[in-house]
UniProtKB/TrEMBL annotation:
Residues 170-208 form the PLAC domain. Its main location: secreted. GO terms for biological process: extracellular matrix organization; proteolysis. Keywords: Repeat, Secreted, Signal. Pfam families: PLAC (PF08686), TSP1_ADAMTS (PF19030). One of its GO terms (molecular function) is metalloendopeptidase activity. One of its GO terms (cellular component) is extracellular region. This is ADAMTS-like 2. Gene3D superfamilies: Thrombospondin type-1 (TSP1) repeat.
Amino acid sequence: WRLGLWPLCSGGCGQGRMIRHVYCKTSDGRVVPEAQCNLETKPLAIPPCGDKHCPSHWLAKDWCNTTCGRGVKKRIVLCLEIVNGKIKTRSPADCDLTKKPVEETTCFERPCFKWYTTPWSECTKTCGIGMRMRDVKCYQGKDIVRGCDPLVKPVGKQTCDLQPCPTEPPDDSCQDQAGTNCALAIKVNLCSHWYYSKACCRSCRAPHS
């Protein structure tokens, strides 16, 4: 926590306030969201001030808001008095409990950023290994925006491993295609290539020494 400068007190005992800015900063001086600091230890931004001696009274610290969506917001309510010009914390019983400000209430902040996906498409293959796709978009409420956390973005593409594809039954009538040098194809191991497996089907099927 880093604190701004104190201004002059705005009024007398029990009514006076000195408003200052309270920032959450990193060690290198960057201002970051308050949630990154311990809100329980946040210094008072609007402490009481005024006369040298002021009786015990309630002071509500700043609200700690939810960042987005519907939720509950809370604040710390303290019983304080001013003794010799200095703020002292007192037991809640020392203040009028009937006048204690509320510490918790429901709230709604702006809609949250959230990833939404469409259903998966059909697999690109009917057997073997194919791919399936889906749209992945970032929404804030009903609007498509940028701002969702890329580290938790759902995948938009994945493989789909189906049952093995059937193999072609042996064709005893298979003949080598005329004009194709099947002997050379066998010699340099080209039978796995789709063209030579068809053009030299008889030679590639025959056992080789």
